[in-house]
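Example A, followed by Example B.
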Amino acid sequence: MRKSDEGNTTREIYFDQASSSFPKAPGVGKAMEEMLRRDAVNIGRGSYRSAYALLEQVMDARDHLLNLFHAPGDTALCYTAGATAALNQFIFGYLKPGDHVIVSSVEHNAVMRPLCEMQKRGVSVTIAECDRDGTLEPQKIEDAVRQETRAVICTHASNVCGTILPIAEIGEICRKRGLFFAVDAAQTAGILPIDMERMQIDFLAFPGHKGLRGPQGIGGFAVRKELEEQMTPLMFGGTGSRSDSEEQPDFLPDKFESGTLPLPAIIGLDAAVLQLTPERIAEIRRHECILSERFLRGITGLSGARAVGIADPARTGERVGVISLDFPSRDNALAAFALEQEGIFTRVGLHCAPRAHKTLRTFPQGTVRFSFGISNTEEEIDTALAAIKHILKE
């Protein structure tokens, strides 16, 4: 709560869950505090009881994530600073000059910027164009496959318009054509069921601080053995293992985890992941659909604001709780500022995804993005709709 210039109390509503979840899952802060207070040691280095106990916790945390993602038995879990670092590891660690890779046209810059650099090094890229609502026809992926194609990289859901892409169908194409399939689960991990085996995903990048509701600074990737064996680590150094050798270990997770891990963040993330049972994920998904439908119904027919992507309230099953609005008659940044003055926190701009905005026809003006989570309420949706109507009258 805060006070307005007139002295009235204004409720602050956080609708920027796609950037980072808030509040975090219950118990995350406590788990991190207890680890720092009682066992702030290192793992793989110290030969004493507390170090071994913490190592066991970290090993269990890896298994919890692999179970959450229904990873096949030959899959390993490696920690990184987040999904961006994970995607960089795949792109720079696997692709080589002369290779060809296919991506969708709604990818985040965590994919596009590394690929832009790789194009300078001799990797070719084909963009499978999504429709204006962010949907992608899987046949476009298959049509783009060439003899030198090595991989497909695809976001699970757009961080701009929330549209869910047909991951299972694309995975089937990749397996049939002998391609590795990398998925960016930045907007879906902890929100949608992810089954790496059924979806035939070889590399899954995830952040800990969004749908998983853990702390910032932690994320990672789940990678299948056949792919991992063909990847080169981006960072080399101490791992606490095979210290008699100056060569980087070739076994997992040490191969990709040089240096000290962010142990408090891992413990905090694990506290959040342990709460994500299949039933809980289904509950989160239902709640986001209810909020999205209510918001879209309130926007439908409203003059001066246009929902980007799948705007039909009856189709919320095809999207996550990320909804972008364009205010054609005004500057979107000013609209976002006006909303902030009424206590509605959103994100405005291009959301690190300029190609997605070109697909959605919102480049270069960007959009005002509302993103919902399990902590948001229908009352907050109604408050936001009232605020939008108010600023449109100004």
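Example B, a separate protein, is given below in the same form.
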Amino acid sequence: MGKYFGTDGFRGEANVDLTVNHAFKVGRYLGWYYGQEHKARIVIGKDTRRSSYMFEYALVAGLTASGAEAYLLHVTTTPSVSYAVRTENFDCGIMISASHNPYYDNGIKIINGNGQKIEAEIEEHIEAYIDGRIPELPLATREEVGRTIDFSSGRNRYIGYLISIPSRDFKDIKVGLDCSNGSSSAIAKSVFDALRAKTYVIHNDPDGTNINLNCGSTHIEVLQKFVVDNGLDIGFAYDGDADRCIAVDHKGNIINGDKIMYVCGKYLMEQGKLNGNTIVTTVMSNLGLYKALERDGIRYEQTAVGDKYVVENMMTNGYSIGGEQSGHIIFSRYAATGDGLLTSLMLMETCVEKKKTLYDLASEMRVYPQLLKNVRVKDKKIARENPAMLKAVQEVQKALGSDGRILVRESGTEPLIRVMVEAVTDAQCEKYVEQVINVMRAEGLILE
């Protein structure tokens, strides 16, 4: 974690934590860095926040001032920027978005030439330039000044790519889409219409301030009601930049990232396409997923929380699918990052090919009750290594046995210890979480 860049780029309240000057300097550094041996080509996408236009112009000013060519995808999804970088030979890509955050926040995500999140070393250099810890960079002059180039065709190529992926169309299937008034508003309906689905769309009218507002993957209850009330077969909700997807079956049940990985992973195994017979998860995936995978003879690997760690594991080992409970799912055959639209297409294909409803496929995995509580502490390291607390955790795990688990970890950004328990009942979860927190309190670890 750097001073400005976290696990998902440079993010904060627009013109408070993330300013126009920051964006200009990010552009200046990237334009210079990639332009040392040739004229840099950098592609930019943005979501629908009011401030995204402001940051787009600031980034373009920085890039062109350093001599780079700035290609504009306009309003588009994070995965489409990743796709454009990989397929159009750009040096890097920039996505202006704060994902599922409210409209007044924004962020800058930088994507490398492989379509993945930029290396931490480059982020460190950008931070040093922002803070004036490296010399001022030369400005381009005369014919070396960069240009801004409209690249809306790149978004259309991405739409065409998505349409080409499913092996069958979705004729007459009634599909609900919650576009979160975000990036998917410009893409999702076109894809499902082209695949002959009967498409019903909500929250598809962005105005700059309504992105993620009581809609999308973080407010899935809206789509649940919409699917049931309209008798739809299936529904998909995206976040602001459409790199995650949460689904809803025809009965209104939530199908989160864990269930999506199970349904699609099992289908890939049956098709002989699950590389290494393995699914990559984070440590926060539900115990029910692991039990279902073990029952079906599918291996799994766990990473730290964060889709970047999932991607690193997948690319290193050549695995086919991985992701997070939140709906960041990576299908490595088709993409180098989480892609909400691709995820929904893969779920649709699985249902069509197996001639089963999403309800039937997902019900094969039982979700265990899960409770997570954040505890504000005086010192994370001291709390995490406290002998009495460690003993309490061991006692809980012993009591749970194979029918539950406890996970205690530090927050990466706040002075918090996260205590999570999965068990057979909600009452057990509450009991054991409180048991550990009470020990922490008795040891004087908690900041009251």
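On Example B: The two ends are 27 Å apart (CA to CA).
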